[in-house]
């Protein structure tokens, strides 16, 4: 596995080199393979080699190589399911590459479906019923998005080709595309699956549920951004800002360490979508790139903490971790600061520009308020984590003393490359950008820290029970999904009872009872009774004939 | 051919041996509530009947006996509705899941948190594992909660619709002109 990860790492840097080369020459390579052409309907396999696709491929391969290395020590080597884990991760990588290279509506099916299915398999990796439950939630919501994709594919048969860019967009198509994007990148009504998917092992959640799978929707939106009208974009802006706000609020009150990071991922996804709605394609891609790097690193830190605490995820037990694992918690703090956009760290370059563009571009005041409040929330919960790590009141349950070198190496190496790359990629597009704004807006990034700290202090002392329940239940959206899952499970139970065990027994015994007419009044009226008699006579006739 | 030869007497066999076909010709003046349970009860072996629920209790003594059989108080005991969902004298117990029960009580079967000989609800198979969480007290019912959630979303939509756009102070767009360095008008 070590060899594989090293090879992957080298291959990722080849991709980086090629992407820079393509950018230098302004080169855009499109490979097209005609699979079937029938009555002016062309099924084409597309491969787009662009500097963007190659850069994204570099990102995915680099992160996954680090995580393969990391999971060698994280996973239990004696587990007999370990082989399956690695194969699934490789398959995930393959489907992600397929998704990146061919964003055509027909061939995206390969990557898109593969991602949903493999993520389900990885969530239920620990064979527990609780993980089954969350996996079921994930697969149901991903299927919803897939159904949108299937409908688009079947709808586009009318036009003869699956290149969505050629045609004028219809309302129906737009709706389906929106469902696809919202389910995959976990926006407002469908965001429940992401925190539930934290039942997966931590390397999985650092690769799948932070950087690659959830960005698939945004990647699709980057390609098809020009198709959306302004009205749709306003709507998406509202929804993404709501997602940001809700997930930011949730992260301030959540007590599961891993779920806090999942909520921060949710809020960042909303952030990216909102910037896409302002027609800033490159900036969204830049933030996607940077966010994937530092979020996967953050998950790796949390994972190593959990590993040493023997699988305890309760946030209260992580008090005073700084004094035991200073190196690891320093990396954690760095990544949190990057998330906040601390000046001249990784997140700063994208976040500062984005906030400036929020003030610069024209949008509804309500959306702007939501976005800025949720921006404060991110700082508030990251300060909450830092305060918890520095707390003197130790509540340690169980720890291993010896630190793991390979895990630390992965995190450190990732951080170094990240710090180098961020400014480098910033310079590709945004070197010369300068926005004319008032100084109040210009220095909002610094002001944000003070306001976020105050907000954190307020949240710490908050003790309104009903409001907390309201916030903890995703604005009560969780309950809707609970109802759906309950009914689905009920149906499954009935299905198991009837179809697997004694379907034929029940069916034919019922028929005999019908003939016996004991329960006649419940099922049949007189006409059908005559019909049955006639059919019986007819059958008898046939028998007698033979 | 042998199979077809045997089929000749099929109608005879069916009409004579099968009890149900004799009853086929029966006509009812009015609808009589009768259940399959009572009729097919005699087809089981006596050892099997011991584990089946008895007939629906009609007198008060039968009622008390049935309550005692399932280990319930006569006031607490409530069988299924005989017309809609006939299940003999089996009690209609509420669904209470594993998580809703007391973890510190010394259960006889700690895996399912049940006692020995305790009457289980009819759909007990739905409670196995932790797929369901029936019986847990919730601050707000699920239906009401979803309504509140969607109403919040509706309020957000209305607010977004009513509020004006942001108005940033921007300069007029500059275009390169001939002679002069730039103009504000597009030619």
From TrEMBL, chain A:
Its main location: membrane. It holds the Pfam family Proton_antipo_M. The keyword Transmembrane helix applies. It catalyses: a ubiquinone + NADH + 5 H(+)(in) = a ubiquinol + NAD(+) + 4 H(+)(out). GO terms for cellular component: membrane. The chain crosses the membrane at residues 6-30, 51-72, 84-101, 108-127, 147-165, 172-194, 206-223, 235-253, 259-278, 285-309, 329-349, 365-386, 406-428, 440-460, 466-485, 529-545. It is a multi-pass membrane protein. It comes from the Eukaryota. Signal peptide: none annotated. This is NADH:ubiquinone reductase (H(+)-translocating). It comes from Frieseomelitta varia. The gene is nad5.
TrEMBL record, chain B:
InterPro entries: NDUFB8. Keywords: Membrane, Transmembrane, Transmembrane helix. PANTHER family: NADH DEHYDROGENASE [UBIQUINONE] 1 BETA SUBCOMPLEX SUBUNIT 8, MITOCHONDRIAL, NADH-UBIQUINONE OXIDOREDUCTASE ASHI SUBUNIT. It comes from Frieseomelitta varia. This is NADH dehydrogenase [ubiquinone] 1 beta subcomplex subunit 8, mitochondrial. One of its GO terms (cellular component) is mitochondrion. The chain crosses the membrane at residues 147-164. Coiled coil: none annotated. It comes from the Eukaryota. The keyword Protein transport does not apply.
């Amino acid at each position: 596995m070590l060899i594989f990860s090293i090879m992957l790492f080298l291959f990722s840097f080849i991709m980086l080199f090629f992407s820079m080369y393509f950018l230098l020459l302004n080169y855009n390579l499109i490979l097209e393979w005609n699979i079937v052409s029938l009555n002016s309907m062309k099924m084409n396999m597309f491969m787009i080699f662009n500097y963007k696709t190659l850069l994204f491929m570099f990102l995915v391969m680099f992160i996954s190589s680090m995580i393969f290395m990391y999971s060698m020590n994280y996973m239990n080597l004696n587990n007999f399911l370990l082989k399956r884990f690695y194969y699934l991760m490789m398959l995930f990588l393959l489907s992600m590459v397929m998704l990146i290279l061919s964003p055509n509506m027909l061939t995206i099916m390969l990557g898109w479906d593969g991602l949903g299915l493999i993520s389900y398999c990885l969530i239920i990796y620990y064979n527990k019923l609780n993980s089954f439950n969350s996996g079921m939630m994930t697969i149901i919501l991903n299927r919803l998005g897939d159904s949108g994709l299937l409908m688009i594919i079947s709808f586009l048969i009318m036009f003869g080709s699956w290149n969505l860019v050629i045609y004028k967009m219809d309302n129906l198509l737009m709706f389906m595309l929106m469902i696809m994007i919202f389910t995959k990148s976990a926006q407002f009504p469908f965001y429940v699956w992401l925190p539930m998917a934290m039942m997966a092992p931590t390397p999985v959640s650092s690769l799948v549920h932070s950087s690659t799978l959830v960005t698939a929707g945004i990647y699709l939106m980057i390609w098809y951004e020009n198709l959306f009208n302004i009205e749709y974009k306003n709507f998406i802006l509202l929804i993404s800002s709501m997602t940001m706000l809700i997930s930011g609020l949730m992260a301030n009150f959540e007590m599961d360490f891993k779920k806090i990071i999942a909520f921060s991922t949710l809020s960042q996804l909303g952030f990216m979508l909102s910037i896409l709605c302002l027609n800033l394609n490159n900036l969204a891609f830049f933030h996607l790139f940077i966010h994937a790097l530092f979020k996967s690193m953050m998950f790796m830190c949390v994972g190593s903490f959990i590993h040493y605490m023997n699988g305890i995820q309760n946030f209260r037990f992580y008090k005073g971790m700084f004094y035991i694992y200073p190196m690891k918690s320093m990396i954690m703090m760095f990544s949190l600061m990057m998330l906040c956009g601390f000046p001249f760290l990784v997140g700063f370059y994208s976040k500062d520009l984005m906030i400036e563009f929020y003030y610069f571009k024209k949008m509804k005041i309500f959306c702007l308020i939501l976005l800025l409040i949720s921006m404060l929330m991110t700082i508030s919960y990251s300060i909450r984590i830092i305060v918890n790590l520095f707390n003197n009141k130790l509540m340690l349950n169980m720890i291993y003393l010896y630190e793991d070198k390979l895990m630390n190496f992965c995190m450190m190496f990732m951080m170094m490359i990240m710090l180098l790359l961020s400014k480098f990629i910033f310079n590709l597009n945004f070197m010369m950008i300068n926005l004319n704004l008032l100084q109040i807006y210009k220095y909002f990034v610094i002001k944000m820290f003070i306001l976020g700290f105050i907000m954190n202090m307020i949240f710490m002392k908050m003790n309104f029970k009903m409001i907390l329940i309201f916030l903890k239940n995703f604005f009560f959206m969780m309950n809707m999904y609970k109802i759906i899952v309950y009914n689905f499970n009920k149906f499954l139970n009935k299905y198991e009872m009837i179809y697997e065990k004694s379907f034929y027994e029940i069916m034919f015994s019922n028929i005999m009872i019908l003939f016996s007419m004991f329960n006649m009044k419940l099922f049949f009226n007189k006409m059908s009774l005559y019909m049955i008699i006639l059919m019986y006579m007819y059958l008898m006739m046939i028998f007698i004939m033979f | 051919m042998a199979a077809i030869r045997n089929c000749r007497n099929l109608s005879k066999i069916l009409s004579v041996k099968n009890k149900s076909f004799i009853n086929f010709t029966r006509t009812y003046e009015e609808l009589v509530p009768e259940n399959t349970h009572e009729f097919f009860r005699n087809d089981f072996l006596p050892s099997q009947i011991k584990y089946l629920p008895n007939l629906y209790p009609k007198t008060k003594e039968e009622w008390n006996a049935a309550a005692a059989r399932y280990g319930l108080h006569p006031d607490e005991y409530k069988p299924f509705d005989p017309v809609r969902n006939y299940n003999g004298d089996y009690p209609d117990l509420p669904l209470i899941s594993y998580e809703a029960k007391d973890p510190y009580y010394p259960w006889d079967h700690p895996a399912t948190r049940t006692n020995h000989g305790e009457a289980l609800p009819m759909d007990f198979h739905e409670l196995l594992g932790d797929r369901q969480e029936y019986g847990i007290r919730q601050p707000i019912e699920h239906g009401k909660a979803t309504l509140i959630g969607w109403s919040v979303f509706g309020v957000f939509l209305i607010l977004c619709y009513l509020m004006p756009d942001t108005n940033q102070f921007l300069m007029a767009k500059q275009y390169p002109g001939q002679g002069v360095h730039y103009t504000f008008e597009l030619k």
